[in-house]
Amino acid sequence: MRAVEIRPGVRIRWVEVPGATPARVYLHGLGASSAPYYAEAVAHPLLAGRRSLMMDMLGFGISDRPSGFAYSLEGHADALAVALAKIGLRRCEIIGHSMGGAVAIVLAARHPEMVRSLVLVDPHVDPATPSLGAPGSRGIAAYSEADFLSHGYDRVLRDVGPHWAATMRMAGREALHRSAVDLVRGTSPTMRKLLLELDIPRVFLHPEDAPPSGGRELAGAGVQIVSVPNAGHNIMIDNVEGFARAVAQQRLSV
């Protein structure tokens, strides 16, 4: 485990595997932590040998959980940019899952010097409508912050699967709610529009039975759409081989 102070008393932490450059930076989804989701894939023969940083965003995993942080997509991206700069990294390969994919897009748009290429793992690219009882960010964002802190968190934790619950317990409750609210609200322009306009190699991984909406437009803008069989939303866990192969192949276009 390593850490860097991004502002007085606030640290982003990550698990790092040494290796060759360019570095790969792995970003987790909402309520997750990077090492439990990516460690097996990072050790896969197709991906081993590269410097790999499994980073936890503020509010999640082993990173700090400052209560005064907005936990917006832009805030997460800016905090990561500060961390990467202090580590001395530029032009990284960013791999982002779910919410981490949205943050990766914003990072590339706001801090292009930090990002060499993107691998987006079933990412959020469009705004969504909150709905009580809906899975993931839509259900969390349907609560007011006060209601989520008083009882919504316990209900959400009870209803999620065991893998997600294990890392969600590590998240700050304010961070979880505020991140979900901003994720469903989306950015302006939207994450999709930002992604379409980026001028770097971009790969969009999706489960075979859940192709992305607007896939033709994404492909037309140069985004490589990759279908991964035998996988749900957590592609890097469900099909490690397929995930590793897709990540390894994208470097050919860098």
UniProtKB/TrEMBL annotation:
SUPFAM superfamilies noted in UniProt: alpha/beta-Hydrolases
Name of a matching Pfam family: Abhydrolase_1
InterPro entries: AB_hydrolase_1 (IPR000073), AB_hydrolase_fold (IPR029058), AB_hydrolase_sf (IPR050266)
One cellular-component annotation, GO: membrane
GO molecular function terms noted in the UniProt entry: catalytic activity
All residue ranges annotated as the AB hydrolase-1 domain in the record: 25-128
Name of protein: Pimeloyl-ACP methyl ester carboxylesterase
Organism (species): Lentzea jiangxiensis
